[in-house]
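User: Sequence recovery, please. Input:
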């Protein structure tokens, strides 16, 4: 069965990957969640390089900020400077509540900034809200 939407999850924490995928499985939409562990892998995925030659084009990107090799801000900067990738909405999904992270993420072109709730129910609700807004309500190019 084909998915209605594809989400690229850029996250290095396996527990958060699992929770995010679980939240999307509860969706009324068919959402294909592809996950990669850092910005280097995410760029390869988006550019269909190496093992990602058959990667689908994501409708949105959910991005953690704190990752090895290439962090979220550096990745966001690369995506928003790339003519073929810059229209993909990037929603920062991170544990950070730092004002400087919020401001810098928006300055780099993120479409939204969501702090990951610690509580499981609130985390699932946050992902549902992201889905409702970005995959149902908003029109994307």
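Assistant: Recovered sequence (141 residues):
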């Amino acid at each position: 069965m084909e998915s209605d939407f594809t989400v690229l999850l850029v996250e290095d924490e396996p527990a958060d990957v699992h929770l995010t995928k679980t939240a999307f499985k509860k969706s009324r939409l068919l959402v294909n969640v592809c996950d990669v562990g850092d910005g280097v892998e995410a760029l390869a995925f988006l550019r269909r390089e190496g093992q990602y030659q058959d990667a689908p084009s994501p409708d949105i990107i959910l991005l953690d900020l704190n990752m090895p090799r290439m962090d979220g801000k550096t990745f966001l900067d690369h995506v928003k400077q790339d003519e073929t990738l810059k229209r993909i909405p990037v929603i920062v999904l991170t544990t950070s509540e730092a004002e400087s992270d919020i401001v810098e993420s928006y300055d780099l072109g993120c479409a939204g900034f969501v702090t990951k709730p610690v509580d499981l129910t609130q985390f699932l609700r946050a992902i549902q809200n992201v889905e409702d807004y970005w995959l149902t309500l908003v029109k994307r190019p």
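The mean pLDDT is 92.
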